[in-house]
Write a structure and sequence with these properties.
Elements lengths: L3 H23 L4 H8 L3 H8 L7 H4 L2 H16 L4 H16 L3 H9 L18 H20 L15 E4 L9 E3 L5 E3 L2 E3 L5 E2 L4 H11 L6 E6 L2 H9 L4 E3 L6 H11 L5 E4 L8 E6 L2 H11 L1
Parallel strand pairs: 7-8
Antiparallel strand pairs: 1-2, 1-6, 2-5, 3-4, 6-9, 8-9
Helix pairs in contact: 1-2, 1-3, 1-5, 1-7, 2-3, 5-6, 8-12, 9-11
């Protein structure tokens, strides 16, 4: 695990200080004066000025860093800028470079797994793709922990297996839905989760969720279990609106028709069809909520 702040400390800070120390010395400030302005020792200034510190060439050549250094050097030398003002100016540029820019690129090189998310991202942005995706994965893991610790759950796993899924806020395909690869199975009377959750591995349950969302549901998560009238009644007693759909119509048409009749339904079910096993789908805001709803209804 390597934080972007470590990249700032290890790559940006030595480069920036070296450039700024040299620029201040070029403006005829003494090493002591430079040390006071930068809040570092004179020996550190000497190392920066004499290129005894490794710098990052990409940052050293970046026009924004060069412009920042020159602006700060002029302001600090002329007295128009205080060290605090210089710090604020530098922080602004650092945040810009973290927003899917060169510092983010250096971070991705240090943590290759970040490349899985593609495109530019901002680690500190609460709405960044990375953070939202990781939150969805963590949410499904919490939901799976509930399933695994509910022994009674195993007998409600259908023959086709169970899956617990959660979609990203703007999901429009199964690639935007977290699920369990291979589905949850009944292993000697206990629910068994075969692998860590990931994106794009559920077709049927993810499709039910996406279809529900496309037809007005604001649910972000879904869990399927075998149809059981007593379980359905328990879910209704806990406050869920339920609606049946015609399995023979297919998921898209059947779920659409059902939600048209009962827009607020949090439980969608079908009692079987030609070659189709009867299933209950519990919908909700997140994976732990739907897993907890089934656990409490058992």
């Amino acid at each position: 695990m390597r934080f972007i702040e470590e990249v700032v400390v290890d790559e940006f800070l030595p480069t920036f200080r070296s450039m700024l120390a040299e620029a201040l010395r070029e403006r005829e400030l003494t090493q002591s004066e430079v040390a006071d302005l930068l809040g570092i020792s004179q020996s550190a200034v000497s190392k920066y000025v004499h290129s005894e510190v490794t710098v990052n060439e990409r940052l050293e050549d970046d026009e924004r860093v060069v412009e920042l250094v020159e602006r700060l050097a002029d302001g600090l030398t002329g007295g128009e800028m205080s060290p605090v003002q210089a710090l604020v100016e530098a922080e602004v540029v650092i945040r810009q470079l973290e927003q899917g820019d060169v510092l983010a690129q250096l971070h991705q090189e240090a943590v290759p797994e970040l490349a899985e998310y593609g495109g530019a991202f901002a680690v500190h942005d609460p709405d960044s793709d990375v953070r939202i995706a990781e939150q969805a994965l963590a949410s499904v893991r919490r939901g799976l922990a509930i399933v695994e610790n509910t022994t009674e759950f195993a007998r409600h796993i259908p023959a086709v297996g169970t899956n617990l899924v959660e979609a990203l806020p703007d999901a429009d395909s199964i690639e935007d839905v977290v699920a369990v690869p291979g589905r949850i199975i009944d292993l000697k009377g206990r629910p068994e989760v075969p692998a860590e959750p990931e994106f794009g591995v559920s077709e049927y349950v993810a499709n039910v969720l996406l279809t529900a969302r496309a037809n007005g549901s604001d649910a972000r998560a879904a869990l399927n279990v075998s149809y059981d009238s007593s379980l359905l009644e328990a879910l209704e007693a806990s406050g869920y609106d339920t609606v049946e759909f015609d399995a023979d119509q297919g998921v898209e048409d059947g779920v659409a028709a059902a939600l048209d009749a009962e827009p607020n339904a949090g439980v969608i079910y079908q009692t079987g069809g030609f070659g189709l096993e009867p299933i209950i789908y519990v919908l909700g805001p997140d994976a732990p909520t739907v897993a907890g709803a089934v656990r409490d209804a058992l």
